[in-house]
Amino acid sequence: REAAVSLSGVDLEGEEVDLADLRGKPVVVNVWWSECPPCRVEQPDLNEAAAELGDDVAFLGLNIRDSSAEKAQAFVRNNDVPYGSVYSPDGRALLAFAGTLNPRSIPSTVVLDADGRVAASVQGRIPTTQTLVSLVEKVLDE
């Protein structure tokens, strides 16, 4: 695996977020946009996976393209998203995943290992809750 992903930014509430603070357990990073139909379809699966995996795994959203944090916050509220999201309307936060994610692939999901290195990625919508849970469990078993 390559070096640890370095990503910091501001979340939807204006608080600083740094992926380095989440090291020590796997992290699922999901790239989304409130007006993205596949993002809406996959959100229940992400919520379910977060609940099933519990405290052994951290989840972090990466919101790109929304013109305001308020639009993204409405999506979070309406979909009961149980984890925070970095707000990057210009998409620059995606540069942290260069070589792993295509900048046009929304949604996409990356699983980082406990050291912050990319262990798995899904371009596009995750097919099922179990697909994501299985990817993360493989990382947990390492």
Helix content: 25-40%
Q: What share of the residues does DSSP label as strand, in percent?
A: 15-25%
Structural class: alpha/beta
Average predicted confidence as pLDDT: 95
Coarse morphology: globular
- Given as residue ranges, the uncertain stretches (5+ residues, pLDDT < 50) are none
Strand order of the largest sheet: 5-4-3-6-7
What does this structure look like?
With 142 residues, this protein is an alpha/beta fold. The chain is 27% helix and 24% strand. The protein has 3 helices and 7 strands. It has a 5-stranded mixed sheet, with helices on one face. The protein has a two-stranded antiparallel sheet with strand order 1-2. A hairpin with a 5-residue loop joins strand 1 and strand 2. The protein is globular, with a radius of gyration of 14 Å. The two termini are 13 Å apart.
How do you describe this structure in short?
This protein is an alpha/beta fold and 142 residues long.
Summarize the helices and strands and which ones pair or pack:
Elements: E1 8-10, E2 16-18, E3 27-32, H1 37-53, E4 58-64, H2 69-78, E5 85-88, E6 108-112, E7 118-123, H3 129-140
Parallel strand pairs: 3-4, 4-5
Antiparallel strand pairs: 1-2, 3-6, 6-7
Keywords:
single chain; 142 residues; alpha/beta; five-stranded mixed β-sheet; two-stranded antiparallel ribbon; 7 strands; 24% strand
